[in-house]
Write a structure and sequence with these properties.
Largest sheet of chain A: 4 strands, mixed
CATH topology of the largest domain in chain B: Rossmann fold
CATH architecture of chain A: 3-Layer(aba) Sandwich
CATH architecture of the largest domain in chain B: 3-Layer(aba) Sandwich
Shape of chain B: elongated
Number of strands of chain A: 4
Distance between the termini of chain B: 133 Å
Largest interface: A-B, 32 and 25 residues
Number of domains of chain A: 1
Distance between the termini of chain A: 12 Å
Radius of gyration of chain B: 48 Å
Shape of chain A: globular
Strand content of chain B: 15-25%
Structural class of chain B: alpha/beta
Number of helices of chain B: 20
Helix content of chain B: 40-55%
Oligomer: heterodimer
CATH superfamily of chain A: Glutaredoxin
Number of strands of chain B: 25
CATH class of chain A: Alpha Beta
Helix content of chain A: 25-40%
CATH topology of chain A: Glutaredoxin
Number of helices of chain A: 4
Largest sheet of chain B: 9 strands, mixed
C-alpha cells in the first residue's frame, strides 16, 4: 500500500473524485462517508470530492453514463474509473481507484 | 399490477396502435396502453426495426412523441441505418417528435463495492421522457444491463422496478431482448414482467429467408397465437395476415362482368359477384391471360381501377400481346386506371412477395385484381404456406370488396381438377380452360366448374381468340362427341349434305311404298280372279266327274244283275296297299 502511495506521490496531483447520488438516501450518505474516509486515509490532501445529485441535475447523468447510484467516477488522473455501490468494501475501492493492484 | 390505474377503469384494456401494417390486426388494436411490452428475438430478427416503427408511426401518424433509448447503437448509427428504411429520424427529432438517447454501457466497466440501484438510469429516462413529453418509449436492448453489472439480483429487481416505473410514467413502452435458449428472453425475466410479449424469428428455408412473429402473451386481451410472417423492407415493417382472420367480409350481391359476354352468360347471366375470387386454370396456351385481360379491361371501361400482378411477363409484353386480340390496355395504363405490377416471385420469396402485393393493393386501392399466375407462388413456397398465405390474400381482398381473378397453370399430364384442388376451395368461381385436340387441330374449350351462389352453365364452350378478342361458341354436339374448330365446320357441311340426300331418299322410298301398295292391290285382284277362275273350272270338272260316276254305277249294276259277283273280287285285290309297303322293310 505504501509503495502504491509512494509511486503516485512522486508526481504530485489532485485526484478528482465525483460521486453521483440520487437524493439523500441512506445509501448515498453511506457512500459519501465511505469515500471521505478512504480519501483521507489514502489520498491525504490530494483529492477533491464533488457530489452530483442527479435528482437536482438529471442531465448530468448523460455525461458520465451514469446508470447505477451511487457511482464514483475518477477521471483525473487517467484512466477513467467507475466504482458503483456504497463503497463499503474499502479494498475494492482502492483497486478501483488504482491505488492498489488488483 | 401496472400503473396508470387512475386512467384506466375496470373497462377493457386500452391499446395503442403501432401503425405497423398487420400488427394492429393480429393484436386487435396494438400494444397495451401505458404498459411495457417485450419484443424478443435473436440478433437480426428485426426487434429494433419493430420498436423504431412503433415510435416513428406514433410520431407521424398519431402525433405521439417517442423516446428511443439505445444501449447498443449510437444515435448517429440509428439515424443512418433507419434512413435506408425510409425513416427520417433527424427530421422527427427536429420536430420534437422523437428523441434518441444512446446509453453507453461497457461490460464490467464498473468496480462494484456494496449495494447500489439503477436510479441513475431512471433519472436519465425520466429527463428524456419529460424533455419531449414522450408517450412512447423504447429500450433497446435491456439485457445489456445484465452484462454491465455483476450483481444479477440487483439487476433483476431493478428491471422489474423499471417496468413498473415506466407504467407509472404513463408511457407505452417496448423493451427488446435477446431470446434465450429455454426462456423467451435470455434471463427469463422480462417475459414475466411485461404485459405483452412477442417473439421474432428469422429462418432460412430453401434459400428463402422468412421472418415470423408470434404473440406469446397479451395480458388481459385476446390475441392470435399463430406465427405470422412479416417483412422488413425499404418501407418499414409489415405483418401478414394483412387483414382480419375471420370470415367477416360482407357478401356483395352485386355482379360484375368478366368482360366476355358469353362467359357472363354462363355465370348465371350476370358475371361474377363483386368481391369474389375467381380461378381460371388451364394448361399452357389455353388463354388464361386473355381472359384476365378482358377482366381488367371491363373494369377499366366501367371506370374502375384494376391491378394486374404479372409474374411471367412484363407490362409492355402484356399490353402488346393483348393488343393482338383487340384489347387496348395501353389506354388504361395511361389513364392510371390500370397498373401492372410485374415481378418474379422467385426473386423475393413468398412472404415478401405477398406483403409487397398487399402494399400495392393498399396503395392503388383497385376494384379488381388479377394474379397471373398463382402457380409461380407455389414454386417458391410449400403447398401449405402458399395456401395459407393465399387464403389471407383472398381474405384481404374480400374485406376490401376487391374482385380477384387468379390464373393457374396446370401441368399437361395431370388432371386439371386434381392439381388445382388445393386452392380451388378458396375460390368462389372456377373456370377451366382446356386444349381440345381433334382432327389435327388444337382448339380451346372452356367450362365453368363451379360458381358459388349462382346457377351456372354446365356446357363446354369453344373458346376462340381472334383480333376482336375472346369469344365463346357453342360446341358441336353430335353422335361422334364434341367437335370444335375446322372439324366442326367440316362436320356441319357434311351434315347438311347428308341431310339433303336423306330427304331425297325418304321421298323416293315413300314413293316406292305407294307404288308397292298399288302393285300389291293389283296383284291381289289378279290372283283373286285367277284363283276364282281355277276354282270354277275345278268345280265344273267335279260335277262332270260325278255325273260320269253315276252313269258308271248305273251301268255296272246293270251288268251284275245280268251275270253274278266274281269279277268284282278280282279287281279289289289288285289295288290293296299292304303288298307295296312290305317291300322297303326287307331292303336294309
Amino acid at each position: 500500500m505504501s509503495r502504491a502511495a509512494d509511486s503516485s506521490a512522486t508526481r504530485p496531483k489532485i485526484w478528482h473524485l465525483r460521486l453521483y447520488i440520487a437524493g439523500q438516501t441512506p445509501r448515498s450518505i453511506a457512500a459519501l462517508a465511505n469515500l471521505k474516509r478512504i480519501s483521507e486515509e489514502h489520498l491525504t490532501g490530494r483529492y477533491k470530492i464533488e457530489v452530483v445529485d442527479l435528482l437536482e441535475n438529471p442531465q448530468l447523468a448523460k455525461g458520465d453514463q451514469i446508470l447505477a447510484v451511487p457511482t464514483l467516477v475518477k477521471d483525473v488522473p487517467p484512466p477513467l474509473r467507475k466504482i458503483i455501490g456504497d463503497l463499503s468494501d474499502t479494498e475494492r475501492v482502492l483497486v478501483g481507484l488504482d491505488l492498489r493492484p488488483a | 399490477m401496472t400503473g396508470s390505474s387512475d386512467a384506466v377503469p375496470s373497462a377493457a384494456l386500452r391499446k395503442v396502435p403501432t401503425g405497423i401494417q398487420g400488427f394492429d390486426e393480429i393484436t386487435e388494436g396494438g400494444l397495451p396502453k401505458g404498459r411495457v411490452s417485450l419484443v424478443a428475438g435473436a440478433a437480426g430478427s428485426g426487434k429494433t426495426v419493430l420498436a423504431m416503427s412503433f415510435l416513428v408511426n406514433g410520431a407521424e401518424k398519431f402525433d405521439e412523441p417517442g423516446l428511443f433509448v439505445s444501449f447498443e447503437e449510437t444515435s448517429r448509427d440509428l439515424e443512418t441505418n433507419f434512413a435506408s428504411q425510409g425513416f427520417d429520424l433527424k427530421h422527427l427529432q427536429k420536430q420534437g417528435l422523437l428523441a434518441l438517447d444512446h446509453i453507453h454501457v461497457e461490460r464490467n466497466e464498473f468496480e462494484e463495492t456494496g449495494d447500489y440501484d439503477l436510479e441513475g438510469l431512471f433519472v436519465r429516462l425520466g429527463a428524456d421522457i419529460d424533455a419531449i413529453k414522450a408517450k412512447r418509449v423504447v429500450l433497446d436492448t435491456i439485457e445489456v444491463l445484465f452484462s454491465a453489472f455483476t450483481n444479477e439480483v440487483i439487476v433483476r429487481s431493478e428491471i422489474k422496478r423499471l417496468f413498473q416505473w415506466l407504467a407509472d410514467k404513463g408511457v407505452t413502452a417496448i423493451v427488446t431482448g435477446e431470446s434465450g435458449e429455454k426462456t423467451i428472453s435470455r434471463h427469463g425475466l422480462e417475459e414475466y414482467v411485461a404485459d405483452f410479449v412477442v417473439v421474432l424469428t428469422h429462418l432460412v428455408n430453401d434459400e428463402t429467408a422468412t421472418r415470423r412473429l408470434r404473440i406469446v402473451k397479451y395480458r388481459g386481451s385476446a390475441h392470435g397465437t399463430n406465427e405470422f410472417s412479416f417483412l422488413i423492407d425499404r418501407r418499414g415493417i409489415s405483418v401478414l395476415p394483412i387483414s382480419s382472420l375471420r370470415l367477416h367480409h360482407e357478401a356483395s350481391s352485386k355482379r360484375l362482368s368478366t368482360g366476355i359476354a358469353r362467359l357472363d352468360e354462363m355465370l348465371g347471366g350476370k358475371g361474377v359477384y363483386r368481391g369474389s375470387s375467381v380461378l381460371v386454370s388451364g394448361t399452357a396456351g389455353t388463354g388464361k391471360t386473355s381472359i384476365a385481360a378482358h377482366f381488367v379491361d371491363a373494369a377499366c371501361r366501367r371506370g374502375e381501377k384494376a391491378l394486374y400482378f404479372a409474374f411471367e411477363e412484363s407490362p409492355a409484353q402484356i399490353a402488346r400481346d393483348m393488343a393482338s386480340i383487340g384489347l387496348d390496355l395501353d389506354q388504361w395504363l395511361k389513364k392510371g386506371l390500370l397498373r401492372i405490377h410485374a415481378e418474379r416471385p422467385q426473386n423475393t420469396g413468398l412472404e415478401m412477395h405477398l406483403v409487397r402485393m398487399n402494399r400495392e393493393i393498399e396503395e392503388f386501392a383497385p376494384s379488381v385484381t388479377v394474379v397471373d399466375p398463382i402457380t409461380n407462388l407455389t414454386s417458391i413456397g410449400t403447398f401449405s404456406s402458399v395456401r395459407s398465405t393465399l387464403t389471407r390474400m383472398i381474405d384481404a381482398m374480400k374485406s376490401r370488396q376487391i374482385t380477384a381473378l387468379f390464373t393457374s397453370l396446370t401441368e399437361g399430364g395431370a388432371s386439371p381438377e386434381a392439381t388445382d384442388v388445393g386452392v380451388s376451395s378458396l375460390m368462389d368461381a372456377w373456370v377451366l380452360l382446356r386444349n381440345l385436340e381433334l382432327a389435327g387441330e388444337r382448339t380451346r374449350g372452356l367450362y365453368v366448374l363451379k360458381a358459388r351462389g349462382m346457377a351456372h352453365s354446365n356446357q363446354i364452350r369453344e373458346f376462340v381468340l381472334s383480333s376482336d378478342g375472346v369469344d365463346l361458341l357453342d360446341l358441336y354436339a353430335g353422335t361422334e362427341g364434341f367437335l370444335t374448330g375446322a372439324a366442326r365446320s367440316a362436320k356441319e357441311a357434311e351434315d347438311r349434305a347428308e341431310a339433303l340426300s336423306l330427304a331425297r331418299a325418304i321421298e323416293e322410298t315413300e314413293h316406292e311404298v305407294a307404288r308397292k301398295r298399288k302393285l300389291m292391290a293389283a296383284e291381289l285382284e289378279r290372283l283373286k280372279a285367277q284363283y276364282e277362275a281355277e276354282i270354277e273350272s275345278l268345280e265344273n270338272s267335279v260335277s262332270e266327274q260325278r255325273m260320269r260316276q253315276e252313269a258308271l254305277q248305273s251301268s255296272k249294276a246293270a251288268v251284275r244283275a245280268a251275270r253274278g259277283d266274281g269279277g268284282a273280287r278280282a279287281s279289289t285285290r289288285k289295288s290293296s296297299p299292304p303288298r307295296g309297303s312290305r317291300k322297303p322293310k326287307m331292303r336294309p
